Amino acid sequence: MHLHTPHARRAAPLCLRPGALAVLSLVCGHMAHAQESATPALQETVVTATRAEQPLSDLVADLSVVDRETMEHSGAAGLVDLLARLPGVEMARNGGVGNSASVFLRGAESRHAAVYIDGVRVDSQSTGGAQWEQIPLAQIERIEVLRGPAAAVYGSDAIGGVIQLFTRKGEGPARPYAGIGLGSQATRKVEAGVSGSAGQGGALDYSLGLARESSAGFDVQTRGTHNPDRDAHRLASGHARLGWRIDERHRIDTSWLASYLNAGYDDYGHDAARPVDDRSLQRLRTAGLTWAAQWSQAYATRLSVTDALSRYATTPSPYRTETGLRGYLWQNDYRLGAHRFSAALERREDALQNAPIDRSRAQDALALGYGLISGRHTVQLNLRHDADSEFGAKDTGSAAYGYAFTADWRASASVGTAFRAPTLYQRFSKYGVATLQPESSRNAELGLRYARGRSSFSVLAYRNRFSDLIAFGAAGACASSYGCYANIARAQSTGLTLAGAHALSGVQLHASLDLQNPRNLDTGKQAPRRARRHATVGADTRVADWTVGAEAQASGQRFDDAANANRLGGYALLNLYAQTRVARDYQLLARIDNLANKNYELARGYATPGRSLYVGLKWAPR
Fold first, then answer.
1. HEC string for 589-615
2. Whose CA is closest to 503, among 10, 5, 7?
3. DSSP labels, 38-56
């Protein structure tokens, strides 16, 4: 499995059960002191930290990369399941795949993660944050997860971090692929696609993919009056990506992604004698057009127009909400020796239709950046000014410094501010208050990283303070007598993240541990659905023609509510997988998840999958 961190080419997280923290300490300690030499990995570039390509090894930011091989090994049922195996990331879900899900970066709220698909911003002006269940993992080729505030680069929403998702990009001769999979709960998956390039020197590259999955599911609710049926889901998705290198200096890229989800859920309050098959009907569509120009060896620009639509509806209960998001970006990058300068003009337009709401707003921004890599020193400075058509201006900034003690060891420190504008629903629904102000945060962190060949270790400490958080309060300023949204909360998330990887006698070890304290500063209570401790650990190796591995996830207790009245117990999950080539062009994957058939909850009153088996066969000519 491959998970890349700023100093680790191959380090997938996974493993651990209760009582195994001592094992994690031994593993990480061994990683930190390993002096085994290995062949250096190829240089890898990322774009999420500064919105410009730069080598992964040059970053002072806390960033992980997940490649397609990791995704295929993981056998993850959904995108949030995969993300939850990364350091600093937790997830919660109201039932199985297809139901409402949340992703927490370093203990921040789910709405505090800015999410992009091929550079297209994805968000909901109803719930706040991306609707994760709509995003099809089958269409994703690569993931970059930036932990820590990035509003000085991306503007509103990037309080906890940024998650960038990329679809497949064509390269070389045409490469078709097809796959089929069968699993527990009558799970069925099928996918097919082709990618490659054509023309002189591969000037035209393309990628096309289609996928469909379905599952009979299980009864997602465990409490209260509801329909005791199995809550099935069906997800159909597709993507297309086309790139044209006009000449050595100019390139045009287009991308498109769409998904349609039909998932069962159990609404509250139905008559037990007349059970209802509640369904959520969701659509996601993203499209982007980018012109990249390299005007000289030093100066490059990128001009892009993006559009996204996210729709959520339910039946037979009549409900429908739709968010439209249009973006315009003009990015300028200039390199002068060890110095990098950037300037960007950006406009974001949000629209919400959620009867009787039919509102829109816009944000215009100027972002400036400076980077320096000189000898042992690395510096990154960013400043951004956002002007919102509704609430006015907001300024954010960040500063990061890294110092390399040796070729293997680097220390870093950073500070940054961030914000999230209130959603249109929070301002204009019957629970809304038009005068709501943006949520804000201030973050500081220190890090130490080691990397040598395929061995790596990192430790990072952070503190993120949130003010003017929007929460549901008492009745007053809105039209509802039940309650209103208000800027009434202060919170803080402090934590320590350890992660590492080491190759030992043909076995690749990988582990991460998060010790955090996300809490409400006004009440002293722990943030809902987030644990004080969570960890992953695992190993994989080659046995004959097979790659075999074991992985586990462990999480401490959490609370389902802000008052900490409803406790969610801790849990540990153990997974096994094996993969081999059954012929030159065919690859077989088998997984057993939740081997011990652990009964646990990520949200109170909602079930999670028990022991499950999945077998997949993929054809991809070599």
1. EEEEECCCCCCCCCCCCECCCCCEEEE
2. 10
3. -PPPPP-EE-TTTSS-EEG
- Residue 592 to residue 485: CA distance in whole angstroms: 44
Euclidean distance between CA atoms 244 and 206, whole angstroms: 9
- Mean pLDDT is lowest, of 36-50, 527-541, 547-561, for 36-50
Phi, psi of 201 (to 5 degrees): 70, 20
State the Cα–Cα distance between residues 477 and 437, nearest whole angstrom: 14
Q: What is the pLDDT of residue 228?
A: 84
Mean pLDDT over all residues of the chain? 90
Name the pairing type of β-strands 161-167 and 113-117. Answer: parallel
Partners of residue 456 on adjacent β-strands: 451, 501
What pLDDT, on a 0 to 100 scale, did the predictor assign at position 9?
34
Q: What angle do CA 234, 237, 240 make, to 5 degrees?
A: 175
How far apart are alpha carbons 26 and 2 in whole angstroms?
22
- Per-residue pLDDT band for 173 (boundaries 50, 70, 90) equals very high
Q: What is the pLDDT of residues 324-359, one digit of tens each?
A: 999 999 999 999 999 999 999 999 999 999 999 999
Beta bridge partners of 436: none
Per-residue confidence (pLDDT) for residue 270, from 0 to 100: 60
pLDDT at 482: 92
What pairs with residue 310 in β-bridges? Answer: 284, 323
The HSE-up count of residue 19 (CA atoms within 13 Å, CB side) is 0
Mean pLDDT, rounded, for 24-46: 45
The residue among 230 and 305 whose pLDDT is bigger is: 305
Report the candidate in 354, 471, 463, 442 with the shortest Cα–Cα distance to residue 109: 471
Query: In what helix (H) or strand (E) does residue 24 lie, and over which residues does it extend?
Result: helix 21-33
Rounded to 5°, the CA angle 159-463-555 comes to 85
pLDDT greater than 90 at residue 498: yes
Nearest by Cα to 529 from 101, 158, 243, 126: 101
144-165 burial: b if 16+ Cβ within 10 Å, else e: bbbbbbbbbbbbbbbbbbbbbb
Residue in 462, 391, 448, 386 with CA at minimum distance from that of residue 149 = 462
Q: How far apart are CA 370 and CA 295, in angstroms?
A: 20
409-420 vs 567-568, strand pairing mode = unpaired
- pTM here? 0.92
Mean pLDDT for the stretch of residues 107-124: 97
- CA-to-CA separations, 46 to 266, 471, 524, 572, 604, in angstroms, rounded: 41, 35, 38, 32, 38
How far does Cα 272 stand from its chain's mean position?
Answer: 38
Q: What is the pLDDT of residue 570?
A: 96
User: Which tokens is 194 given?
Assistant: 């082709």
Q: Are 519 and 527 in contact (CB under 8 A)?
A: yes
Can you tell me the distance from the alpha carbon of 80 to that of 63, in angstroms, rounded to the nearest whole number?
Answer: 17
